[in-house]
Amino acid sequence: MESIQLGWIDYAILLSYTAFVIGIGFALKRYMKSSSDYLMSGRSIPAWVTGLAFISANLGALELVGMTASGAKYGIATCHFYWVGAIPAMIFLAVFMMPFYYGSRARSVPEYLKLRFDERTRCFNSLTFAVMTVFASGISMNALAKLLHLLLGWDYNLSLWICSVVVLLYVLKGGLTSAIYTEVLQFFMIVLGFAPVVYLGLKDVGGWEALKVKLAIVAAHPASLGLVTDVHKTFASNAWTSAWKPLLGGASANPMGVDWFAMIFGLGFVLSFGYWCTNFLVVQRAMAAKNMSAARRTPIIAAIPKMIFPILVILPGMIAIGLAVTPSEHYRLPPARVADSLLAKAVQVVRHAPANDPALVQEVAAATGKRMIPASVEALGGGAAASLTDTQLSSRIQDAVAENDYDGVILSLVKKYCPTGLLGLALTALLASFMSGMAGNVTAFNTVWTYDLYQAYLAPNKSDEHYMWMARSVTVVGILLSIAAAYFASRYNNAMDVIQLVFGFVNAPLFATFLLGMFWKRATSHGAFFGLIAGTGTSALFHALTISAGNAPGIKGGYLHILYTFPSEMAQNFWLATFAFGVCFVLTLGISLSTSRTKTDDELKGLVYSLTPKIKEDESTAWYMRPAIAGSLLLVCCVIINLIFW
Amino acid sequence: MGLDIRYPIGYMFSLVGVLLVIASFTDDPAQLHRSLGININLIWGVFLVLFGLCMLLMAWRAKKAEKAARK
Q1: B5: nearest CB among A185, A200, A417
Q2: Nearest to A417 among B5, B34, B51 (CB)
Q3: Which terminus of chain A has fewer CB atoms gathered within 10 Å of its CB, N or C?
Q4: What is the pTM of this model?
């Protein structure tokens, strides 16, 4: 893939965006008077701003790139992450959980756990969360810098550091407020930057109906595009374009390899509620709202664009598949990258192969470690390679890789459709998504470190100036740690997989703890702590005992013993979450009933549903903006969308 | 908080819109085949300018209403 040339207008757009986000940080600096201004925005932000920041903080580069990749791999079923997962969870957060987060004295999610249970649970949650945010932002940075290097030829180190410095400048100056305000600007940037690309792609492919026809061809021969490895595998014609029918046909009838129960319970209930309702990264945005009703409206407002976001992030992946199956388009999915050292090895293999070597394809595949397109490799044999330089030859070998690099899909479309100008806009949108994700992680890390770890355990009872100083210093430290994590991710891919795996284990049972804590006053601190630990242990054990089809035992699971084989990694993941949640729920329940309560009814006021007075709706709030009513309306819309794409 | 985020959003998108409109004139016409023969820079640039102006208008009206309320 040759890199794209940027014109001066593209750079001008990039620079104006950068100038504006840094400018916002400086403009907000004078309002930062106390640690609560800096870390909690002084709870003064209007709901539409926190609402847009709420989705923007989640919409990091990985989400944008990853959802498009899944759109290509699995088609419209990827929308379940939004329509079954995110939307109901966001409405639940708004209607039921926000009153406890915002109404209690808690300044963060871990602090809520301390007020509701005890220090142990808070410590466990804040430590894992702090480490997780650093690694999450590092992984995302690494992915972005790699992409920019591949497509624009930008230097990896340079793009990593420049992007980080921009984020550092505006977060350091304006704290959480600055992160939230720029997230709103980034939200519009991402939407307005990618919308024209999606429009052009859809027009090119012939519109939605034509796309459906093309995706039906793909479904009949998914192996022809490298979507599955089994050449005889076929799916029903609607496998990429119907959200539910292929799912109801069982795990082997849909490209995701997931059954409907795992989808609804594992993804829809356990994983999504766990993420949207307990992850401080997003909840922090709502907690910064100016009053209770604004805090509850935040996730509701966020749910509206979230519902139609699949058009922006999933549809492009489907369009790419539709283009790839149309010969006249001359478009192919970007091939998986082979490391330079392996390419050099493959070049030698081709050069030294005897004429008409029947095993050439296997030998090259062994050298690159990837499946190859036989015809393209054979074309290089028989002396044809002699007339090519090493550079030409290695790029021919790279082009002959049969496996797809799904993460490159979104940029390959940008490259295909954008003339200078629009190109700068789309790239700025990509950078904006990256920065919003990183700033989100850094501000959440900042607050948890300062309030839940530093103030709680290391240096209690210091002056507010001291904590303010700490918060500022930790912004720098947090960004440096993220950069270190990015280098770590680029060097030790496998170690990174292990780390992400461990976080999956920690997150899976978390929602059970919050659910029981908020809605059952009898839940005790012993129950919560040991239930959570056991739930985490269950995830680890479940992973060690199961595997998904096509994977070797090891990092992908099954290293102790293989009790069960799932049809896909996603199915394994959803069922893991389901089991971890179940164990955590049952144990928390059991241990709570057999231990005595440590907190009185009075102490739990404002923290537990049955002990908290019902919130009186503000008379000035329009009826349709009341959380329960607006939430129900949104749920109805969500059901209708599901039915349309049934 | 003292800053109305609609101002920076409005100014930035107006500026970016103008840049796109400029690009629509300076771009090599041969590049147009990429965007299917549509002069997407011009159309989208004008749209972004309008979007930016709308944001500025909303911010300006909110400011006026606030001033009136304070009186």
Answers
A1: A185
A2: B34
A3: C
A4: 0.89
Q: How far is CA B24 from the centre of its chain?
A: 15
Output the CA torsion sign for A514, A519, A525, A528.
negative
pLDDT at A221: 84
> Does the pLDDT of residue A163 top 70, yes or no?
yes
Contact B23 A420 (CB under 8 A): yes
Measured between beta carbons, which residues in chain A are less than 8 angstroms from residue B45? Answer: 421
Q: Do A419 and B2 touch (CB under 8 A)?
A: no
A576: its two tokens: 């893991």
Average pLDDT over residues A273-292: 87
State the DSSP string of A88-141. Answer: HHHHHIIIIIHHHHHHSS-SSHHHHHHHHS-HHHHHHHHHHHHHHHHHHHHHHH
Q: What DSSP element (H or E) covers A547?
A: strand A546-548
Cα–Cα distances (Å) from A71 to A87, A243, A317, A351, A372, in that order, read 18, 12, 5, 39, 23
Cβ contact, residue pair A200, B38, below 8 Å: yes
Round to whole Å and give the CA distance between A373 and A400.
5
The position carrying tokens 């492919």 is A205
Chain B hits for A185, CB-CB cut-off 8 Å, are 5, 8-9, 12
A38 and A175 in contact (C-beta within 8 Å)? Answer: yes
Report which of A536, A546, A534, A537 is spatially closest to residue A573, judged by C-alpha positions: A546
For A262, the token pair is: 């795992």
Give the pLDDT of residue A7.
Answer: 83
Say yes or no: A48 contacts chain B, CB-CB below 8 A. Answer: no
| ipTM of this complex prediction, to 2 decimal places | 0.94
For A29-69, give the DSSP string: GGG--SHHHHHHGGG-B-HHHHHHHHHHHH--HHHHHHHHH
Interchain pair A16, B45: CB under 8 A: no
Examine the pLDDT at A414 and tell me if it is beyond 80.
yes
**pLDDT tens-digit map of A229-256:** 777 888 888 888 888 888 888 878 888 8
Locate the chain A residue with the closest alpha carbon to B3.
A28
Tokens read off for A219: 């479904």
Residues of B in contact with A27 (CB under 8 A): 3, 8
pLDDT in tens, A25-61: 888 888 887 887 878 777 778 888 889 988 888 887 7
Contacts of B67 (CB under 8 A, 6+ apart): none
What is the pLDDT at residue A1? 44
